[in-house]
């Protein structure tokens, strides 16, 4: 009687057919272990699980290695070493069977269906680019879901450029390295937008989602908010607000500003670059010269100014005024002399008097980074 209560009605006939019953009609669990294993599979395998298996068969070799949850627990030593936590899960340090280190992301409160989850797994596994994180495997057991990625020893870009950090130009992360990181992220985005079989829009480009390998090569990670544009589509007609405050494109907040498209990633990318550049000004004392105070070479100053100008082109309020990411790469790699000053974004506030400028730059002013940096750039151009 107990069995008939817990068994899914659609599976009853299959269970009755199994030769488990003894002469008294009871279940003899000490015999026929193979049949019992089969019975358990039939009993607990619900419709959603079968859907996952079907999707995996359809995608075939595109699906990365699937791990059991018990394997995930073993590779992380029972989740003993936490690397970080975001809105979609907790990341732990792990080691797979071949001895390679891995970053294991345990998804929490995932509301996506099994189909959405597998499609996300397949989408990431289709990518192959030096500036996009590699997916090594995944786990799907009901509500237990995990993604296994290659391990990045230098952590996230956020660890180096977030507010409160002090810029140490003698460290590995000098301005030439930051410039190469900016170009690397752009190349990764260009691949997602144009190089994949399906265009992938990330929608959450920010320092926390840029990981750095042992050589400080950047890798775009965390595709939890990503959307796929099939065929030649470049825009998404309907989409809820997604992204991180401070990096989210304005059209995701105000639909009247323009269509949601790959240009939204361009905006987020350049807000990230501006945060990298703003690190200079958080460490620059009022009235001090950039080159003299921070020991920046003339070549590095040109790189910084180039990053600023390109960034300001990419945060234009109207998406159609922003360059595509491919053009961004051309501008960053091209000559400084060929760059034109961008117009001020519509949401840009009036320029402050020069006497207030350095006070604003080094205070806790609530204005945006682009306002502070553009003012500094305009002032230096007029000197």
Q: What's the β-strand tally?
A: 12
One letter per element, helices H and strands E, the order comes to HHHHEHEEEHEEHHEEEEEEHHHHHH
Judging by the overall fold, what is the CATH architecture of the largest domain?
Orthogonal Bundle
Distance between the termini: 89 Å
Indicate the low-confidence ranges by residue numbers: 1-20, 348-367
Enumerate how many helices there are, as a single number. Answer: 14
Which class best fits the helix and strand makeup?
alpha+beta
Most strands sheet:
6 strands, mixed
**Rg estimate, integer Å:** 26 Å
CATH topology of the largest domain: Transferase(Phosphotransferase), domain 1
Helix content estimate: 40-55%
CATH superfamily of the largest domain: Transferase(Phosphotransferase) domain 1
Count of discrete domains: 3
| CATH class term of the largest domain | Mainly Alpha
Strand content: 5-15%
Protein name: non-specific serine/threonine protein kinase
Main location: membrane
Pfam family, one: PK_Tyr_Ser-Thr
Organism: Eucalyptus grandis (Flooded gum)
What does this structure look like?
The protein is an alpha+beta fold and 383 residues long. It has 3 domains: 2-45; 50-150, Phosphorylase Kinase, domain 1; 158-381, Transferase(Phosphotransferase) domain 1 (Transferase(Phosphotransferase), domain 1). It is built from 14 helices and 12 strands. The strands form 4 sheets. It has a 6-stranded mixed beta sheet with strand order 1-5-6-4-3-2. Strands 7-10 form a two-stranded antiparallel sheet. The N and C termini lie far apart (89 Å). ATP binds at residue 105.
């Amino acid at each position: 009687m107990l069995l008939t209560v817990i068994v899914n009605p659609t599976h009853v006939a299959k269970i009755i057919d199994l030769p488990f019953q003894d002469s008294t009609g009871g279940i003899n669990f000490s015999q026929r272990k193979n049949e019992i294993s089969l019975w358990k599979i039939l009993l607990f395998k619900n419709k959603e699980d079968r859907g996952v298996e079907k999707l995996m068969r359809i995608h075939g070799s595109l699906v990365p290695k699937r791990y059991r949850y018990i394997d995930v627990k073993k590779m992380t030593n029972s989740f003993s070493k936490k690397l970080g936590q975001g809105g979609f899960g907790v990341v732990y340090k792990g080691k797979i069977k071949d001895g390679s280190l891995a970053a294991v992301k345990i998804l929490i409160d995932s509301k996506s269906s099994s189909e959405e989850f597998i499609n996300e797994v397949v989408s990431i596994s289709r990518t192959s680019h030096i500036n996009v994180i590699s997916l090594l495997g995944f786990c799907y057991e009901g509500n237990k879901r995990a993604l296994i990625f290659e391990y990045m020893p230098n952590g996230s870009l956020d660890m180096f450029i977030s507010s409160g950090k002090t810029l140490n130009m003698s460290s590995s992360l000098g301005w030439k390295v930051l410039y190469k990181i900016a170009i690397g992220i752009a190349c990764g985005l260009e691949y997602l937008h144009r190089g994949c079989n399906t265009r992938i829009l990330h929608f959450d480009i920010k320092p926390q989602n840029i990981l750095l390998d042992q050589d400080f090569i950047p890798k775009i990670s965390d595709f939890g908010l990503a959307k796929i544009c099939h065929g030649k589509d470049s825009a998404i007609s309907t989409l809820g607000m997604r992204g991180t405050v401070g990096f989210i494109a304005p059209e995701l907040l105000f639909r009247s500003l323009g269509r949601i498209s790959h240009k939204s990633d361009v905006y987020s990318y350049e807000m990230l670059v501006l945060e990298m550049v703003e690190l200079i000004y958080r460490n620059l004392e009022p009235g001090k010269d950039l080159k003299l105070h921070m020991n920046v070479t003339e070549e590095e100053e040109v790189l910084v100014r180039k990053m600023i100008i390109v960034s300001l082109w990419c945060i234009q309020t109207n998406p159609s005024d922003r360059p595509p990411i491919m053009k961004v790469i051309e501008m960053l790699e091209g000559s400084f002399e060929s760059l034109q000053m961008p117009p001020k974004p519509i949401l840009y506030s009036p320029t402050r008097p020069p006497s207030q400028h350095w006070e604003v730059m080094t205070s806790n002013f609530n204005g945006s980074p682009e306002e502070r940096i553009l003012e500094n750039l305009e002032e230096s151009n007029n000197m």
